[in-house]
Amino acid sequence: MIDPVCIISHNSTEPSSLVEVVFQIVDKKFNIYFKSDENTLLSGNAEAFLACALLPSMKMGGGQIVTKGEVSHKFLSALSTIQDIYCTWQPSFKRTEITGISTLKHPPSSQKRVGAFFTGGVDSFYTFLKHHDEITDLIFAYGLDIKLKDTVLRKKVSKKIHEIASEFGKNVIEIETNALELFDFYVNWGKLGHGAALAAIGHLLSPSFHRIYIPSSYTYSHLFPWGSHPILDPLWSSETLEFIHDGCEATRVEKVALLSKYDIALHSLRVCWTNPYSVYNCGKCEKCIRTMINLKINNALNRCTTFSEELDIKQVKKIVANTEGTRAFIQENLDALEKNNGDEKLRKALIYVLNKPDMPHLKRFRRKIKNHIKQIWKRIF
Ligand SMILES: [Zn+2]
Fold it and tell me: How far is the CA of 89 from the centre of ligand 1 (A)?
């Protein structure tokens, strides 16, 4: 008999604007909620809850996930491949079994609505603009890249997303969730977790949608283990809801080329992931700087009103390209500059960033000295 590693408890029967679920992972309980605006009903279904429970369970040794209800046959079959993928990406993960459920072959969906996850960033703008004829709803999940306590930033972002939707005659769905508490406790959000969380939100919305776009982060030429991935995202689909991982054909420079044709995009683009003091874009973090480079290459930086500062070459040189993803983005910018005979100072700065040695030992040593001085300072005063 395999021990349960995760027990899922919920009382969701009818669609509601609030879905609450308890995940007991070994001996730790997580009370997770998903809340929508009052016009949007969420369906608390087993697909959504399994998408949340899978990675924590695999991390904690596999075993069994015990839940109840009916699960799409297509979704359940694909969970095996999803686990294969995660086991190769994360060899310490163990496969898990799902018990307590029955499978159901849903008929194809008659729903006509098409959603796209939307943050106001480069990837989500690109996917939306590319498919705006088809997309009916922008889905903004609050509590994932924007922390729940940052209500000021939420208001700013929500206002902008409603302006964008209004310009194109689209609907906005806002979902608030604390699901990050569960994911963050067990897995790296970027490298492994965020796609599963988006899949969970998608399934909560499944009664209303037959297709949901998940904007890509990377191109087909730069693929590596990442929580939202072209081989992974479609596997979260059911008979009634299709997930499409979109945008791998375009670099971020090319994505910005499309969005820079739209004033509304240049007046609402949001990419910052540090957001000090709830600012929309700080203009200083790595993601802000490399997006400002994307905009500069497309002669659109001075028209983009969500960056208040000029691009500073000194800040560019400070970028630490020590991950596969950051190196890919820097290389994309460099390739585009070289192709277009762009700014020579900027080109040299990007070459400098790609070639400067990553010195983790030196960084650790500096950190140690800093902490040591802090301790001495505390003792004296
Ligand atoms: Zn920033």
Answer: 29
